[in-house]
Every structure is written in C-alpha cells, then in structure tokens.
Amino acid sequence: MPDSGEPAEGPELREPDLPRTMKQRPRALRTGWTTGTCASAAARAAALHLTTGSPQPWVEVALPSGRRVTFAVERSAELRPGRTEAVVVKDAGDDPDVTHGSELTATVCWRETAGLVLHGGVGVGVVTRPGLGLEVGGPAINPVPRRMISAAVNEVIDTAAHGVEVTISVPDGELRARKTTNGKLGILGGISILGTTGIVRPFSTASWRASVEQAVAVAAAQQQPAVVLCTGGRTEKGARELLPQLPPVCFIEVGDFTGAALRRAVELGVPRVVFVGMAGKLTKLASGVLMTHYTRSKVDPGVLAGITRAVGGPESVATAVAGANTARHAFEVWEAAGLLPDAGAELCRRVAAVLSRFTGHRVTAEAAMVDFTGRTVIASTPPQDGGLLP
Asked: In the chain, how many H helices and how many E strands?
C-alpha cells in the first residue's frame, strides 16, 4: 500500500520495440563543482594575476582526492597596486542547487605580515551560533574549502614568506541564501562555502543527510531541550504550532533521514526527540522501518488494522483498514468510524516506542500526527510529566 500522497505503482513502462542498434542508453547525470572548489579556483586565478600581472583565462586546482581539474575564469578585475580579483561561475551539473550559476569571487591582496588570512565578503554568510564547527562571528567557509583555497594560493605564493589576504564573496549570495536553511542554523547574510570532495553529485542524498546531522548538532550546541523531526515543510508548520515554546533551530526537516537524525541526537546528548508526520510515514516508523522513502519501503496495512483492533474498533473496520489503498484511505476509514483521535494516539505511541528502541532508550521519544494539510494535530503520544506535548 503506497504512502499517502505518493504515486501508486502503475503498469511497467517499456521501451518501444526498436532494433538494438537504435536503442540509446539514458544520459548519465552530469556532476558539478562545490562552492568550495569554485572559490579555490577563483582564488588561484586572482593570485596568479597578482603575481604575474596577467589575467588568467583558465586555472587548474586540486580536489581533496588529489585529482586536478580545470576551470574557466569568467572575468578578472583590472589589476590595481597590490590587489586584484577573479570570478569563477559555479556549475552544479544536473543537481538542483540554489547556488548554480553564482559568481564565486576571490579578492587577493598583499599584507605586511606573512601568512594567509581568509575573509568572507558580500554574500558569504556569517556564523552566529555554535555547533557548526566554525568560529562564531567568522565566515561560513567550511574546513575543507578553507584548505582548498589555502592550497590553491600557496601553489602560487609562498605564504610562509609573504602575507596575503583572500576574501571570498558572492554578489547575490544573500538572496540565494533565502532558499536554504542557513537562517535557521544561524548563518546570516549569505550562503555557505561548502564541500568535502569538491564535487557535486546530482540529486545526492548525502548532502541532505549531512544537513540533517548538522541541524541536530546546532540545536545540541545551544543545549536545546529537544529536536523536532518533521518530514517536510507542511509538517513543520504543524509542529511549530504544536510546540510554540521551542525556537526555530529545534525544528528539522529530516525527509527520510530519521535514523541519521536519531543517531546524531544520541551522539550529542540531545535528551528528547519529537517526530511529527502524517499517517503514511508514521505507519512505516511504527513498523520499524526508518528508511521511509516510497521507493525503499511500503506502508504495511496490517499495522493499521492491528491498531484498529487495539483501540476497540470492530472487525469490519479493521478489515476495511487492512484493504485500504493508501495510509490516507485508512485514516479516512478511522475518521468515519469515530476512531480518531484514539487510533492516531496509538499509532504515535508505537512510533515513539520504535524510536526509543532505536536509540537504546537514551533519548525520550514522542510523536504527533498531523492531518494532510500539515496544519492540524490529530493525535500525539500520551503527555508525560514535564513532557513537551500537551
């Protein structure tokens, strides 16, 4: 039974009967480059312009793996005494990245004291909260990009003997950052300069998982009493209405990475986790399935039928629930039979039990179910003394 709102399995799609020689392989998705890689290329281009006096049409930089890649330089500023800048445009490949097409700009100038000093300029966010592994008050340039920028400049200028200042900026970075979670994480005024491998892999789940783990770390660093795991934007709205006493940093869109969030919560000592979702995701979790993506798991109608019986529903209703087409259909059967909110509360109780077992009972787990608008809370785990839920 597919999750509510997800496409049901349809007939198998087949290619037309063409001769083998005419069939074409699907085009592979194109990889791209991280903001960190593009920033390092811009920094190298500016450093070369500063030292040679000639603008560079192309530059080569090293990725963390040691592989070297070449970038076109979009433009270089007019060389001024002891100062210049260069621009590299980010190509995210086939990844739907909000920073695709942004102009990573590096300004390089001499300084009197030996060493390289890195700054964040216009459009690069400023870190205002702990938990990101970066200095509060400093630019949101992650450790790997920092090393890449430093290495790219040091290939041109021996910074052990000469002083250099490098400023990374993104002219429209503040506007682009509005489409990211930076504000919630306490990164203000622009985008982050990111990357661990230097390569953007299209539609990569790794980046989402990393952002979920980072969000938990930020909440933990602020010693928040709980993190609230939401499956998406609609459920987050319902969660905020349910728990208005918690600051925005506590609410995390986990998508299908509930397990990753829970492991991080245990690791960092977060005392309480609240999961807020709709019927389909909650049913999968109640079944013990933490990977809830519709391509990886299906809703088990037997779980919902068992819940129906557990709350005293007649066998005819349990049978109807067992044969429901979707979790939403089962929800509607419960509603028509007058089994809400009791059935929803039992579902939430079972979800909380699964989450608690997954964490080795080191985290207090609660759950709440919202309707299919995400705005109305239908049921939650029974409130505990001092608990977050009403």
From this structure: 12, 18
CB-based contact 108:48 (threshold 8 Å): no
The CA dihedral of 302, 372, 205, 219, to the nearest 10 degrees, is -110
Distance CA 155, CA 202 (A): 30
- Which residue ranges form the domains of the chain, and what is each CATH number? 32-200 (3.30.2110.10), 206-380 (no CATH)
8 Å CB contact between 303 and 318: no
Q: How confident is the model at residue 180 (pLDDT cuts 50, 70, 90)?
A: confident
Q: How far apart are CA 123 and CA 263, in angstroms?
A: 33
Contact 180, 193 (CB under 8 A): no
Prediction pTM value: 0.65
Query: Which long-range contacts does 59-65 make (Cβ < 8 Å, 24+ apart)?
Result: 59/88, 61/37, 61/148, 61/151, 61/152, 62/148, 62/151, 62/152, 63/37, 63/148, 63/197, 63/198, 63/199, 64/144, 64/147, 64/148, 64/196, 64/197, 64/198, 65/197, 65/198
C-beta of residue 142 within 8 angstroms of C-beta of residue 195 = yes
Indicate the average pLDDT of the chain. Answer: 85
Residues 100, 188: Cα–Cα separation, whole Å: 20
Band (383; pLDDT cuts 50, 70, 90)? low
388 band by pLDDT with thresholds 50, 70 and 90? low
Residue 255: both structure tokens together? 């998508």
Examine the pLDDT at 387 and tell me if it is beyond 80: no
